[in-house]
Amino acid sequence: MTSVLTKRNARSVRISSHPTNNTYLPFIPPIEMRRFLIQIGYLICFACSTQSINAQYLVMHAGGGISSQYGGDTKHIGTFRIGAGWEFELSQRLSLEPQLLYVSQGWKLKDESIPNKDNEGNIIVDDNGNIVYTKKGTSVKANYLVLPILANYYLPLGNPHYLYFNAGPYVAYGVGGNTRISGDPDLTGAERHYYDISTFQQKDIHRFDAGVILGLGYEFNRTIKAGIDCHWGLTDVTTSGRKNISVCLSIGYRIFNAE
Asked: Euclidean distance between the first and final Cα of the chain, in Å?
């Protein structure tokens, strides 16, 4: 048995809390990203002009792992990435590799405990007059184009096997993704169970991201790489100050040598 504690207009709540415009903004990199790309171009030109290039390789990359945010109370979800890099071999042990990656990552917010409501917008109470609570969940998926530039250091273990370490900066720009809201008692019908909204249409989520990448791995026969890397965001991607972080197992494959 339930009773009415208060009454609200469910339709007005639905209009304000459930955006209907899912049109993506055009891909226009912010000024910080354009400046970074110019600086990266200068860095590549400088490194290649001051070092003799032994070889150049097209390297395909793919991987998967977990991602979340730090600086707030969030949980992790799965992530995957795919892309390519152009590796300039400066010596037997050192190379420089700019990359272009498509990365799908995200985070899950801690479930909110909020008063449950019936389809008329009335708060539900039990037989003892206590408010019945429900859990509202939010899971965010954000897709980025990521532009890293990595310095790779190879430690020979016996030709042709190497242990490698890499590090470098990255910039990223959000190009898509959906946020799923589940268990929203202010809505009715199927939307009460879950609905999706565009991630980067939300005012509290920024498209631009930047940070550093740290990784290590093993290279077989100068052709196949297998390793683990961490993308550590250094810029706020939400208005609450949270930053992206992800850990990924990855493989790489050199397509050809462009000596």
From this structure: 78
3-class DSSP state for residue 118?
coil
Other C-beta atoms within 10 Å of 179: how many? 20
Q: Give which of 101, 106, 108 is closest to 79, Cα–Cα.
A: 106
Tell me the CB-side half-sphere exposure of residue 15, using CA atoms within 13 A. 3
pLDDT in tens, the chain (259 residues): 444 444 333 333 333 344 444 433 444 455 555 555 555 555 555 555 545 567 789 999 999 999 999 998 899 999 999 999 999 999 889 999 999 999 999 999 988 888 888 777 788 888 888 888 888 889 999 999 999 999 999 999 988 899 999 999 999 999 999 999 888 877 777 777 788 999 999 999 999 999 999 999 999 988 999 999 999 999 999 999 999 999 999 999 988 665 5
CA–CA gap between residue 182 and residue 171 (Å, rounded): 31
Residues 245, 235: Cα–Cα separation, whole Å: 11
Rg (CA), the chain: 24
Contact 143, 103 (CB under 8 A): yes
